[in-house]
Structure formats: C-alpha cells, structure tokens
Design goal:
Helix content: 25-40%
Strand content: 15-25%
Number of helices: 7
Largest sheet: 6 strands, mixed
Order of helices and strands: EEEHEEEHHHEHEHEEH
Bound molecules: adenosine-5'-diphosphate, magnesium ion
Radius of gyration: 19 Å
CATH topology of one domain: Rossmann fold
Number of strands: 10
Shape: globular
CATH class of one domain: Alpha Beta
Strand order of the largest sheet: 6-7-8-3-9-10
Distance between the termini: 47 Å
Length: 262
C-alpha cells in the first residue's frame, strides 16, 4: 500500500473571522490522498475547492484542524508543490524555455542540468520547436502546457491544479486531458485537480471527491475503477457520470437556494 501524501483532518477555514464579512468556507474536511494518486475535487461554484487547494499550496492557513504533507504540517508554500492555475501565469517577457527554467534557476540548478531538464519537459509536453517562442505567440492550450512543464520543472512531490483547462475550447481540452493522463502515468505525481467538469474528473481520476455546498465538507467519494484510456461513451463511464452528476446537482440546488435567501 502506498503511503499517505496529503492528509487533511478536521479542516476548517473561516475567512475574516470575527468580522462582519466573515465567511465559513470549509467545515470539518477529512481527506487522505495517497502517493501517486490522482484525485479530483468537484463541487458547486464557491463551495471551497480553491480554498482547499490554496491551503495545501501553503498560501492560506486552516483556522482549525491538521493539514499535513509527507507527515509534516504544511506551514507555507514550497517547491515541493507544483501549481497550475486556470490563468496561465507565464512571464510574457520570457521565452518558453526561460519560463520553464524559472524555478530551476532559483534553485541554483547548474546550467547543463537545467538544459537537460528543459529538453525533457519540452518533449513531455510536446512543444518541441517552440523553445524560443514568447508566450503571446502561443495558443491557450500551448500556454497551459508550458505552465504544466514549469510546475514539473523542479520535480515537485505533488501537483496542484485549479481548473487548468477551464478556459480552453473543447477540442484543446480533450487533448490536454489525454496528455495529462500520459504525464501522470510517466511521473506518478500525486495530483489534486480542481474542476467543475464531471466528465473531466472521471476521465482523469483515481478518485473523485465531491464537496458539499459551502461550508464544504466531503459529501461523497467515487473511486473510478476504469482502465485508461477511458471513453465517455462506455456504459460504466456513463454510470459514474450519472451518479456523480446526481449527487452534485443536489449540492448545486442547495447553493442556489442559499443565495436566494440572501
Ligand atoms: N480571500 C478571501 N476572502 C474572503 N472570502 C473568500 C476568499 N477567498 C474565497 N472566499 C470565499 O470562500 C468561499 C469559497 O471560495 P472558493 O474556495 O474560491 O470556492 P470554489 O473554488 O469552490 O469556487 C466563497 O464563498 C468565497 O467567496
Ligand atoms: Mg475555485
């Protein structure tokens, strides 16, 4: 059995505690993610998915509970976590190779090793020939590939992805999904992947974790027992999809009802 990589126990997150604009985002969240696992987080908009990811990233602190990575309490951001957001955060003034090299330079990796690593990552994301291009000349999908390569550059223990394909068109998105599966199979990075797409979550994940409407708790965990590559038309796939959509719809309705009462 693989060891536990991320362990969340009794996590609570209150924004602006004691203030008039206090928000209870997360309430008593418990989740263990094992080494090498690909876990998707799904839930209604505003339920606390990004908040949880930010806490694992070390950018926010839980107001109660224990959040650990590799057996140690998470106290801040670190190079052991690679992060990819929906909006590509590339440096527009730097070429693709320099964008990918960013973390390696900071870490003081020697130049030849940097170059070897960049070549490897460029091949992994399929952007050979674009090493010298500037971000503005790349499509959305290509920029997101560079962002993934940059997150992988210093070989982090885990990958945190927040709706990374949310802004991409359907065709580009399905190619990115296939590539991410391939990258995961090659690197076995423990991955937390926030999405609002049920289909995306089933295509990618070992487990799909469904959050309740805010304040977030875990409503249900779906273990996806399907070999890769997965097909959206497969009857078992459709079965998972119906089950997850049904459960998610209940939470979305609660969110809508709560907002009506405001
Ligand atoms: N920095 C913040 N300050 C105050 N409230 C916040 C902050 N970030 C998020 N929230 C609130 O916390 C709740 C959960 O937000 P978020 O984690 O972004 O949801 P999700 O990613 O699931 O859409 C929302 O009600 C949001 O408005
Ligand atoms: Mg979010």
């Amino acid at each position: 059995m693989k060891s536990v990589k991320i362990s969340a126990s009794g996590i609570q997150k209150v924004y602006n505690p004691g203030d008039t604009n206090e928000v209870l985002a997360i309430e008593d969240l418990n989740l263990d993610v094992r080494e090498g696992e690909f876990v998707s987080l799904l839930g209604p908009s505003g339920c606390g998915k990004s908040t949880f990811l930010f806490m694992v990233g070390g950018f926010e602190k839980p107001t109660a509970g224990s959040l650990m990575m590799s057996g140690e309490t998470i106290r801040g951001p670190g190079a052991d976590r690679g992060i990819v957001f929906q909006e590509y955060v590339l440096f527009p003034w730097q070429r693709v190779s320099a964008n990918i090299a960013y973390g390696l330079k900071i870490a003081g990796v020697p130049k030849p090793e940097q170059e070897r690593r960049i070549a490897e990552l460029i091949a992994m994301i399929g952007l050979q020939g674009f090493e010298e291009a500037y971000p503005e000349s790349l499509s959305g999908g290509m920029k997101q590939r560079v962002a993934i390569a940059r997150a992988l550059a210093y070989d982090p223990d885990i990958l945190l992805m927040d709706e990374p394909f949310g802004a991409l068109d359907a065709q580009t998105r399905s190619r990115m999904i296939a590539d991410l599966i391939r990258i995961h199979q090659a690197t076995h990075k423990t991955t937390l992947f926030v999405t609002h797409s049920v289909e995306e979550s089933i295509l990618l994940s070992d487990r799909v974790v469904l959050f309740t409407a805010r304040p977030a708790r875990i409503k249900e965990i779906f273990k996806i027992d399907l070999p890769h590559p997965r097909s959206v038309t497969d009857s078992e796939f459709v079965h998972y999809e119906k089950a997850i959509l049904g459960s998610l719809d209940e939470e979305v309705s609660k969110t809508i009802a709560a907002n009506r009462d405001l």
